[in-house]
Design a protein that fits this description.
By secondary structure, the protein is of the alpha+beta class. The protein has 2 domains: 225 residues, 3-Layer(aba) Sandwich (Rossmann fold), CATH 3.40.50; 119 residues, no CATH class. It contains 11 helices and 21 strands. Strands 8, 9, 12, 13, 14, 17, 18, 19, 20 and 21 form a 10-stranded mixed β-sheet that branches. Strands 3-2-4-5-1-10-11-15-16 form a 9-stranded mixed β-sheet. A hairpin with a 2-residue loop joins strand 18 and strand 19. It starts with a helix and ends with a strand.
Length: 392
C-alpha cells in the first residue's frame, strides 16, 4: 500500500509538470514592433472561427497607471496588429470591488486570449489571489486555459505571476547571493508548473538571483529554471517551448550542483558549484520533459575555424546590463579559452562567477558562421561556480 501511495504521488507530480494550455511568457520590455512575439500570442488566441477576442489586464502600481497602460496595449493590438475585438478588463485592487465582480469575471468566458502586461506583481496577486485563495476570475481563466480555450500572455510582472512557483520580488543578484531570495511563498496563478522562471534577466543581470532561487527550492520545484531576456518570449505548448524575439532564454540546471565555495577563506558565505547552463536564441526549442535542445534549422554549428583565436573576456561587473551574456558568448567564441570569469561590481563582499566549457562536450550555433564577439549565439554545455571572492 505504501508503494502504491508513493507511485500515486510521483504520478501526480509528473502530471503537474505538464503544460496543458497555450502560454507566452515574455521577458518584459517587448517592443510594439516585435511582430514575432505579438503574432505568436495572436495565433494561439485565434479560434476556429478566426476571430480572436482579447482581454487586457494591466499590472500598474496604481489605478491610473493601469488604465493608461491598458489604453496603450489596446492601441497596439488594434492599430498595428489589426485586431478588432480587444477590451480592457479593469481588475485592480484599487478599483472598488472589481476583483470580486462576478459580472466582470464572467466576461472572460467570451474571450480567447488574456494579455497580462507588466508593472507591479503586488496588485495582480492581491486582486486575483487574495490570501492565497483563487478568485472567481482567476478560476475561470485557469479552467479555460487547462481546456485549451484560452491563450495567456504575460510580460514582465505580468509574466512573473503566471508561474505556480514563487513569484520573485525586486532584489538584485548580488543581494540574493549574499542574503537569499525574497518572494511570495504562495506562488502565482499556476499557468506554468515546469520550474521557476525570471524576466528582464539579461538587461537587469538577474542570473544570480534566479540560480540561487532554483537551487534553494529544488526540492519543491525541480532542478530547472529559465531566464527570459527583454524583448524575448518563451512560447510554451505541451511539454516544451520555443524562443521568439530578439535575445534569448537561459536554461539553468542545478541537478549536479552542490552548495559550497572554491574559496577556503569565504567565511561561510553562500556559494554554488557546478551549475549547468545553456542559452537559446530565437528559433531554438527546448523539451522540458527530455531536457533536449533543438536548434533552429536556419542556424549553423560553430567550431574550430569559426572561433576567434583570442582569449575570452573577463569583467568587473558580471551582473551588469547584458554583461553575463557577453562574457559567456566570448568564451564559446574563443578557440583559445576553456574558462573565464567575472566579478561582481559590489565588493563588500565581492563575488566571482567562473565559467568553463568542456572540451568535446559543448556545442554552439549561430545564424551565420562568423566569429564576431558581439554575436548572440546559442550554446550548451557550460558549467559555472558562484562564490565569495574577497571581503567575505
Amino acid at each position: 500500500m505504501k508503494k502504491i501511495r508513493v507511485l500515486l504521488l510521483v504520478f501526480t507530480f509528473l502530471l503537474s509538470l505538464a503544460s496543458c494550455g497555450k502560454l507566452v511568457i515574455g521577458g518584459g520590455g517587448i517592443l510594439s514592433t516585435n511582430k514575432d512575439i505579438y503574432q505568436a500570442f495572436i495565433n494561439l488566441s485565434t479560434p476556429a472561427s478566426g476571430v480572436p477576442v482579447i482581454g487586457v489586464i494591466t499590472a500598474g502600481s496604481t489605478w491610473s497607471i493601469a488604465q493608461s497602460t491598458a489604453t496603450d496595449i489596446i492601441n497596439i493590438l488594434k492599430v498595428r496588429y489589426k485586431l478588432t475585438n480587444v477590451s480592457w478588463l479593469p481588475f485592480h485592487i484599487n478599483n472598488g470591488k472589481s476583483c470580486s465582480d462576478l459580472t466582470l469575471a464572467n466576461k472572460i468566458k467570451g474571450m480567447t486570449g488574456v494579455f497580462f502586461n507588466g508593472g507591479d506583481t503586488t496588485p495582480l496577486l492581491q486582486c486575483f489571489f487574495p490570501k492565497a485563495q483563487t478568485s472567481a476570475a482567476l478560476g475561470i481563466m485557469q479552467q479555460m486555459f487547462n481546456s485549451n480555450q484560452l491563450a495567456v500572455f504575460g510580460s514582465s510582472a505580468g509574466s512573473l505571476v503566471l508561474q505556480s512557483g514563487p513569484v520573485l520580488f525586486m532584489k538584485d543578484s548580488w543581494s540574493t547571493l549574499v542574503s537569499g531570495s525574497t518572494y511570495d511563498k504562495n506562488g502565482g496563478f499556476k499557468f506554468f508548473s515546469n520550474g521557476i522562471f525570471d524576466v528582464h534577466v539579461n538587461t537587469r543581470g538577474r542570473q544570480g538571483r534566479l540560480i540561487r532561487t532554483i537551487f534553494d527550492l529544488k526540492s519543491q520545484w525541480g532542478n530547472f529554471g529559465y531566464g527570459v531576456s527583454e524583448d524575448t518570449a518563451m512560447v510554451v505548448t505541451n511539454n516544451g517551448f520555443q524562443v521568439v524575439g530578439t535575445a534569448g532564454v537561459y536554461v539553468f540546471d542545478v541537478s549536479v550542483a552542490t552548495q559550497g565555495s572554491r574559496n577556503t577563506n569565504d567565511n561561510g558565505r553562500y556559494g554554488l558549484k557546478n551549475v549547468k547552463l545553456a542559452y537559446l536564441t530565437p528559433g531554438d526549442s527546448y523539451n522540458m520533459t527530455t531536457n533536449k535542445i533543438t536548434y533552429a534549422k536556419t542556424k549553423v554549428k560553430l567550431f574550430g575555424a569559426n572561433q576567434a583565436k583570442t582569449k575570452a573576456n573577463t569583467t568587473n561587473d558580471i551582473f551588469g546590463s547584458n554583461v553575463f551574456t557577453t562574457i559567456t558568448n566570448s568564451l564559446f567564441l574563443s578557440n583559445v579559452s576553456t574558462s573565464t570569469f567575472g566579478y561582481t561590481n559590489y565588493t563588500n563582499p565581492q563575488y566571482i562567477v567562473n565559467f568553463r566549457k568542456l572540451i568535446g562536450g559543448y556545442s554552439m550555433y549561430a545564424t551565420s558562421p562568423t566569429n564576431s564577439s558581439l554575436q548572440w549565439i546559442s550554446f550548451q554545455t557550460c558549467y559555472m561556480d558562484l562564490y565569495c571572492y574577497a571581503n567575505c
